[in-house]
């Protein structure tokens, strides 16, 4: 079972890319800087009306379906935005009710937060979200078992490598597919912690992706409408997508599609390993 062949992505694709977009509204900066920090709150107010629209147009230009990780309270304030993103064929996943950090919650509080966010998003789109990204990627040892118990399919919190990883703390339940995030695949690192020129950011992601593709692996990009949705930074994403699309052999897919495909692939590999042992 250890000697598995390198991953072959669907339809002969050589590597895979997930574009994940975290819709935090003001709640990311409130959780980080406090509700009284109006400087950051006003910057983050760019999220829905300007940034999100620009990113949606960019995705439409490339005919790419992305995964939107949505904060529950932002959805409650702007249900129209969730509905229109879902109607455009993008995946809606959970990203905490109000972006509170899971490492400061009890297991029961995490459970309530996951259920409340998932149920609310489901009422807006008619589709129950199957994926979860924890606010600030701060999960605890309780998070994956809870996701498994609640019937989620994927999580994007832990960088265990450059491929999906099957996590099955409860062997009697369906697994959680852990999709790899990275601090260096996050626009926050480049445009907020530093203010780098968009062309350099695109170049960084292109260098990373060239290696990912050579190794047949997966990259999960994280961007935010209030950051990459700004004029110059949106060019970083456009240049990077140009690069990836031009390669011609990359599967650009929603996180749920990657997770489902990986789960089926692992099941097939397990079955063939079992039958070769039996024979
Ligand atoms: Zn966030």
Automatic annotation (TrEMBL):
<keyword id="KW-0378">Hydrolase</keyword>
<dbReference type="InterPro" id="IPR002509">
    <property type="entry name" value="NODB_dom"/>
</dbReference>
<protein>
    <submittedName>
        <fullName>Putative saccharide deacetylase, slightly</fullName>
        <ecNumber>3.5.1.-</ecNumber>
    </submittedName>
</protein>
<dbReference type="GO" id="GO:0005975">
    <property type="term" value="P:carbohydrate metabolic process"/>
</dbReference>
<dbReference type="Pfam" id="PF01522">
    <property type="entry name" value="Polysacc_deac_1"/>
</dbReference>
<feature type="domain" description="NodB homology">
    <location>
        <begin position="36"/>
        <end position="253"/>
    </location>
</feature>
<dbReference type="InterPro" id="IPR011330">
    <property type="entry name" value="Glyco_hydro/deAcase_b/a-brl"/>
</dbReference>
<dbReference type="GO" id="GO:0016810">
    <property type="term" value="F:hydrolase activity, acting on carbon-nitrogen (but not peptide) bonds"/>
</dbReference>
